[in-house]
Amino acid sequence: MKDAQYNKGITSKAIQKVIKTYYTSLQKVSEIVNDIESEYDFYSSGMVEDKISQLVHKQNNIENQLGFYMEKQKLGNLTKNENIEIKELEDELNTIIENIVFYKSHKEEEIDTSIEFLKKISYSGPLSDCLAGLKCYFKNDISSTKEYLRKYFSENPQAFHFPAIKIYARICHNEANWHQAKRFAMKGIYLKPEDLEFHQIMFDAHCALNEEQGKQIEAQIISILN
Question: Rounded to an integer, what distance in angstroms lies between the CA atom of residue 161 and that of residue 32?
């Protein structure tokens, strides 16, 4: 029997191993979140900042390349291959900008700014629903939050916007929508295995669904995290 002091010292990496082993036995987590490539992609504020920094660096590089082509175009016609490359660079730049907004919107204080930015560039993709849902949530409009996030995740089943996952899991839990609550709590756990709220949601869902094995395992994990 390990003492309480030892339990408190269990590392996040150890918790990740315990949890991943359990959930892989229930369902391949890679089918839920297939965009995560390494342990360094587990959710944290530091990870978000690193992603933004990397994306901004890529954005600057592409904008410099496009600037070079624009200057060259002033001196004469571009070749067919150069025009193709410009189109590819512009598409890549749009994707990078969308991803920057995606990560910045993980902070509540950045949501309104992110929404306004997407409007300014006439963006009409699914991220708009995600951000609209988050904005409604922080205004305590739960009904609209639920609808926006339901649409977002329906159209993007592999989406891994951490705050949106947590909020939707919380809503499903509060409404006793246990299967959906489990689904989103599992996604959240894979992103951040040591997040206590997700495990509490899973525990309550297992209890409601009479899933004794899952209930016992979650109880053990919760005792480690507390």
Answer: 13
